[in-house]
C-alpha cells in the first residue's frame, strides 16, 4: 500500500486489547489480497464484506459477519481495478455467489472510514492522557525522552517541524541522525476538530502502546492514499513503540 491523505466504520468506544498491535514474535495469520495475490497480516489489508443483498461494503475492523475478501492495494489501484472489472471478477471468484454489486463510491468510503478511524484513535488516546498538543509541551517532553511518536500537520511550518524534530533527537540521544516526526496528510483544522482543541499543529504521544495504536491507524490511512513514505515512517514508529513497551 502507498500516498499521504484520507477511510468509514466506527471504532469501539474504548481502547480494547484487540486494537493493540501484535507483540514481536507473536504469530500473525496472513490473508491474501484478491487483486495482487500477495499475502500480508490482516491489519495491513482491508476486508470487503458481502451483504445479503449482494452489495460490497468495506469492513475496516474485520468484524462483520458472513463472508469477506481482502485487498491490499492503494486507492489508485483499486479505482483502476473497479474501472476495468478486475475487482468484480476477483470478488466473484472469491465468493462464488450470485450478483455482486460494487458501489461506485467504494474507494471513497474506504478512505473516509480509515480517516475516521485514525482520528477516532487520536481522540481516544487524547482522553486517555497519552497525547500532548502545543509546541512547548511537546518540546519539553521530547527533550526528556518521553515522546514515542511525533506528528506534524500537513500545513505545519518547516521551521516549527525542525525545532520539534531537533528536540526529539535530543531526547532520543540521536543527534546527527535523520530521526524526525511524521508529517501526516491532515491539516490543523482536521486535527483540531478531532482532538477538541484549538490550532493543533503538532501532536506528541507519550505512551508506547498508544503511540503504536495511533501509528498503525494512521499508516493504514496513508498507505491507502498512496503516501508510502509517511506510511513506512509510521510503521517504523509503531514497531519502535512496541519495542519500547516491551
Keywords:
disordered N terminus, 3-stranded antiparallel β-sheet, 8 helices, 246 residues, alpha+beta, 4-stranded mixed β-sheet, 9 strands, 12% strand
Model regions low in confidence, pLDDT < 50 over at least 5 residues: 1-21
Biggest β-sheet: count, sense, barrel? 4 strands, mixed
Distance between the termini: 28 Å
Helical amount among residues, as a percent range?
A: 40-55%
Rg (CA only): 19 Å
Q: Encode the helix/strand succession as letters.
A: EEEEEHHHEHEHEHEHH
SS class: alpha+beta
In percent, how much strand structure appears in the residues? 5-15%
Number of strands: 9
Number of helices: 8
Q: Report mean pLDDT, rounded to a whole number.
A: 88
Q: How would you describe the shape?
A: elongated
Looking across the biggest beta sheet, what order are the strands in? 6-9-7-8
Amino acid at each position: 500500500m502507498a500516498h499521504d491523505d484520507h477511510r468509514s466504520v466506527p471504532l469501539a468506544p474504548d481502547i480494547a486489547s484487540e486494537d493493540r498491535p501484535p507483540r514481536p514474535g507473536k504469530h500473525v495469520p496472513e490473508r491474501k489480497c484478491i487483486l495482487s495475490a500477495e499475502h500480508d497480516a490482516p491489519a495491513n489489508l482491508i476486508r470487503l464484506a458481502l451483504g445479503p443483498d449482494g452489495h460490497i461494503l468495506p469492513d475496516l475492523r474485520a468484524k462483520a459477519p458472513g463472508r469477506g475478501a481482502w485487498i491490499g492495494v492503494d486507492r489508485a489501484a483499486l479505482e483502476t481495478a473497479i474501472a476495468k472489472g478486475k475487482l468484480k471478477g476477483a470478488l466473484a471468484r472469491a465468493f462464488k455467489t450470485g450478483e455482486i454489486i460494487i458501489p461506485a463510491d467504494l474507494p471513497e468510503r474506504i478512505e473516509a472510514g480509515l480517516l475516521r478511524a485514525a482520528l477516532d484513535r487520536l481522540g481516544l488516546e487524547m482522553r486517555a492522557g497519552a497525547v500532548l498538543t502545543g509546541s512547548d509541551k511537546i518540546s519539553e517532553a521530547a527533550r526528556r525522552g518521553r515522546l514515542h511518536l511525533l506528528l506534524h500537520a500537513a500545513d505545519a511550518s518547516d521551521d516549527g517541524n525542525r525545532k520539534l524534530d531537533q528536540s526529539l533527537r535530543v531526547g532520543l540521544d540521536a543527534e546527527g541522525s535523520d530521526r524526525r516526526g511524521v508529517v501526516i496528510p491532515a491539516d490543523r483544522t482536521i486535527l483540531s476538530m478531532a482532538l477538541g482543541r484549538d490550532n493543533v499543529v503538532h501532536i506528541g504521544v507519550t505512551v508506547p502502546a498508544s503511540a503504536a495504536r495511533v501509528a498503525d491507524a494512521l499508516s493504514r490511512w496513508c498507505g491507502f492514499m498512496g503516501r508510502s513514505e509517511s506510511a513506512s515512517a509510521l510503521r517504523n514508529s509503531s514497531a519502535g513503540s512496541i519495542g519500547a513497551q516491551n
